[in-house]
Amino acid sequence: MLIGEILKQYFNVKEEDINKALEIQQKLGGRIGEILIQIGSITESQLIKALSIQLNIPLYNNDEGINYEEITEKIDFKIIKFLIENQFIPVKLTDTKISLVTNDPFKLYVIDYISKNLEKNYEFFLATEREIKELAKGFLFFDKKEVDFVVEKDIEKLKDMAFEAPVVKYLNELIARAVELNASDIHFEPEQSRFVVRLRIDGVLHNFEELKEDFYLAVVSRIKLLSGLDIAERRLPQDGKFSTRIGSTFIDIRVSTIPTVCGEDVVLRLLYRGKLGFNLSELGIESDHYEILKNMITKPYGMLLVTGPTGSGKTTTLYSILSAIKSSEKKIITIEDPVEYQIKGLTQIQVKPDIGLTFASALRSILRHDPDIIMVGEIRDTETAQIAVQSALTGHLVLSTLHTNDTVSSLFRLVEMGVEDYLINASVLGIVAQRIVRLNCKNCLEEINLSKELVKYYNIDEIYEKYSDLVKEKKFLKGKGCKICAGTGYRGRIAIFEILDYEEDLKELFIKTHSTSSLMQYLKQKKYFRTLREDGIIKVLKGWTTLDEVLRVS
């Protein structure tokens, strides 16, 4: 019986998947089973089971264990090395027979080699590639030269595979698909029994497909070659980058690898060059907040902080502010780690801690370059905080970020970093806290009803009444899911904000009470001030996003 028929009968593989694999086979070659794995129709384990049925070769069961010492005493290591390289692992030896485990019993040259070099009968068992590699590890305590030879040969094989047409084509098409879906990251994740590719779309990770181990390793090798990384280094993290073009879109791709117990985990961050406008009015800032923020960033000196967790859009907000205030009359210098986007009109510095170029040292140096506006990517330590505050006090507008949950806690974070209260009051103009929520897909919108319990629990009617000037029409909407939004119901993202205008009365209260609750109680009397969740609910009332999204991040 053909392998395709077995897969349909025993593993419910669809006819259209078989036909798709046949088309790919005609164009690029390869085996049907392997192609079906690559396109995500089956797993390697399913293919091995199907081969077992087709060829009447039993699946390997390791209940008895393997006597590696006996095998290596009775078989020349050069023969063992050849078998391991070709994924035929000797697991049992008697006077008349050798038992071998493989995932590819079609390698006739290996069978011929066994017949010529081992005067024994042979029998085969089937296992997945991962299982075979685990079995092979038992042989790697022998002469190091021999082991290195195997490793070097494996690396050369991966280099060759990285330039093969299917690997090149796959990576190009994957990046193109990621761009089409507006993905920000591509994750290559090795797990215990599978190799997964996931895409981060609108801030949320989605499983995309699974790859066979050999193909996964070849794709990772190609990524490492493109980004100038050491293909042989799998024990330490590495960082690199490369650029590509998809249609008319130029993309800078930042690459990060880390070693895990299951293999190398690789993440590609896609940076869309020229695609983002960094326009303040497009971030989701409501009109009342926009006026407050505009007043802060047009001040000649002082410090504005943007706060939130990693991935909350702080860098985009800072770039948008800089784009709004840059002019030929101002010198703007940024210190970043990393420089994610290169923007015309800015002098941008990449932090390099390994050579001593830290945020603090760079900040100290740029003060001698006569800047008007300074952007520090992140205040991470006491030294950077103190220099940033001093810069704000000596005639510079300083923009930076902190990792805190809300606006008020940022004041106390500066205190923890050793900045004196009076210096905070003299330097800080305001603080912006933010999160990112997904926008409803405009192509598949439908009106929904929220239960009375939810409306009451989250004070939605009260928020609507308080901010009715911002919400022209109350309407709860949600995306049903369509082809354009890949069935998620969301497409695009927007920020929700909490903005603190650090006015004189608030400064006095901060010095007097040093109490988060006292400051929050005061702020709640101000109409402009609202929490992240309250600002998110305004977006829900406008139909821009859903309550689920707001609750997910706030």
UniProtKB/TrEMBL annotation:
Top-level taxon in the UniProt lineage: Bacteria
Matches recorded under InterPro entries: AAA+_ATPase, P-loop_NTPase, T2SS/T4SS_dom, T2SS_E_N_sf, T2SS_GspE_N
Pfam families: MshEN, T2SSE
Keyword set includes 4Fe-4S: no
UniProt-recorded Gene Ontology molecular function terms: ATP binding; ATP hydrolysis activity
CDD domains for the chain: PulE-GspE-like (cd01129)
Entry keyword set: ATP-binding, Nucleotide-binding
Protein name: GspE/PulE family protein
Species of the source: Thermodesulfobacterium geofontis
